[in-house]
Specification:
Elements lengths: L2 E5 L2 E3 L5 E8 L7 E7 L6 E6 L5 E3 L7 E6 L4 E6 L8 E9 L2 E4 L3 E5 L2
Length: 115
């Protein structure tokens, strides 16, 4: 069974950095499409960053140049490095995995950017 376990969320000051991790089990990440999504209170869930099986990345406009998605196939883990964090980045961040016709979500991890 595929499971995604997220970690790395927390409270950080504006301008700070944070790295989120998504450890997958039951599937090989090399064969999947992966992404990070976020949902702020009162807003719809939105795409933050994605990475294809071929390593092609895509980012939401507001995070370009600040966030970086990467993966470590050996550790079966996907990361989201977040730099220059802003209060508007505050949200619950979710890891997403797509394999064939199936999609999976992590439990979400809270990121709060505040002074």
């Amino acid at each position: 069974q595929v499971q995604l376990v997220e970690s790395g969320g927390g409270l950080v000051q504006p301008g700070g950095s944070l790295r989120l991790s998504c450890a997958a089990s039951g599937i090989i990440l090399r064969n999947t499409f992966m992404g990070w999504y976020r949902q702020a209170p009162g807003k719809q869930r939105e795409m933050v960053a994605t990475i294809t099986r071929g390593g092609i990345t895509n980012y939401e406009d507001s995070v370009k140049g600040r966030f970086t998605i990467s993966r470590d196939v050996a550790k079966n883990t996907v990361y989201l490095q977040m730099n220059s964090l802003k209060p508007e980045d505050t949200a619950v961040y979710y890891c997403n995995l797509v394999w064939g016709a199936s999609g999976y979500w992590g439990q979400g991890t809270q990121v709060t950017v505040s002074s």
